[in-house]
Design a protein that fits this description.
Strand content: 15-25%
CATH superfamily of the largest domain: Periplasmic binding protein-like II
Shape: elongated
Number of domains: 3
Family: Belongs to the LysR transcriptional regulatory family.
Order of helices and strands: HHHEEHEHHEHEEHEHEHEHEEH
Protein name: Transcriptional regulator
Pfam families: HTH_1, LysR_substrate
CATH architecture of the largest domain: 3-Layer(aba) Sandwich
Organism: Colwellia marinimaniae
Number of strands: 11
Oligomer: single chain
Radius of gyration: 23 Å
CATH class of the largest domain: Alpha Beta
CATH topology of the largest domain: D-Maltodextrin-Binding Protein, domain 2
Keywords: DNA-binding, Transcription, Transcription regulation
Length: 294
């Protein structure tokens, strides 16, 4: 049996979408035709690409090793399809951490689309771990993360500098002097991002470096929920300066100077083995050019 482009597209879509039914729908195939095509592809390759666990398909180790090569074929095909067009077009799949997706990406996307109006952005938002997972599984072409990360299949490029800021409500005792020392860091209750987020990783590393043990009152996955919790006195918070700039300006929150090193760097993430299509490479170049650290 031959290995057709359609079968490879089915494999890539199933890995990206997590379900054969969704992949079949994307490629306008019936469920039975998709199932048969995937079976034939596995027979041609000589190894299984997925294992069925309950109702879910889980990609195998051989499947993971093959996926970058299949993506490269798909990207090359997309490049051929765009080669004779005068305009940039297509779906731009991005996955980004919350701070970047909320406070940086909208303006960047708007400017890019103004230059290339036929581009359709598809953006997913999550914490750093989710971004890494989406890139690894081929659910996105470009990732933007806020915290430190290492992955053998991914290329992680420093992009922009950022700094976290500790903050409290205006009537908190610490608000008067707008400072907090090491002893006070341990005395206060904290409302922080969840484990897996880049913000939390930076905060934990900074407190560990200074030997500080904090009292965690709440762990939340939404920046807005953390800010509102701090406003009503549930504890101190620590988020990117970008995410609390408006509240600091209008007096809804107060920044606290601390002895912790809370500087960090946003990073651009792509797959090491992927040959980027024209659109993806264009947006990567645009992001690098737009970085103030360039």
């Amino acid at each position: 049996m031959s290995i057709s482009i359609k079968k490879l597209q089915l494999f890539e879509a199933t890995a990206r979408l997590g379900k054969l039914s969704k992949a079949a729908n994307e490629l306008a195939l019936s469920q039975s035709a998709a199932s048969q095509a995937l079976k034939e592809l596995e027979q041609s390759l000589g190894y299984p690409l997925f294992e069925r666990v309950g109702r879910n398909l889980v990609i195998t180790e051989n499947g993971l090793k093959s996926l970058p090569k299949v993506r490269q074929i798909a990207d090359l095909l997309a490049s051929l399809q765009l080669a004779n067009l005068n305009t940039m077009s297509g779906i731009l799949r991005i996955v980004a951490s919350a701070t970047i997706a909320t406070y940086l990406l909208p303006k960047l996307i708007a400017k890019f689309i103004k230059s290339y109006p036929e581009v359709v952005p598809e953006i997913h938002i999550g914490n750093t771990q989710m971004v890494i997972d989406h890139l690894d599984k081929g659910k996105a072409s470009i990732g933007l993360i806020e915290g430190p990360a290492l992955h053998k299949h991914l290329k992680i490029i420093p992009w922009q500098d950022d700094k976290l800021q500790i903050f409290c409500q205006p009537n908190h005792p610490l608000a008067k002097n707008s400072t907090i020392n090491l002893e006070q860091l341990q005395q206060q209750s904290w409302v922080l991002r969840e484990h897996g987020s880049g913000t939390r990783a930076i905060f934990d590393a900074a407190t560990e470096q200074r030997g500080v043990q904090i009292n965690l009152a709440m762990e939340l996955s939404r920046q807005s929920a953390i800010k509102e919790s701090v406003k009503v006195g549930l504890g101190l918070g620590c988020l990117s300066q970008l995410s609390i700039a408006e509240e600091l300006k209008n007096g809804g929150l107060v920044a606290l100077k601390s002895p912790l090193d809370l500087s960090r760097r946003f990073s651009l993430v792509t797959h090491k083995d992927s040959h980027h299509n024209l659109l993806t490479q264009k947006f990567i170049d645009y992001l690098i050019t737009a970085s103030p650290n360039k």
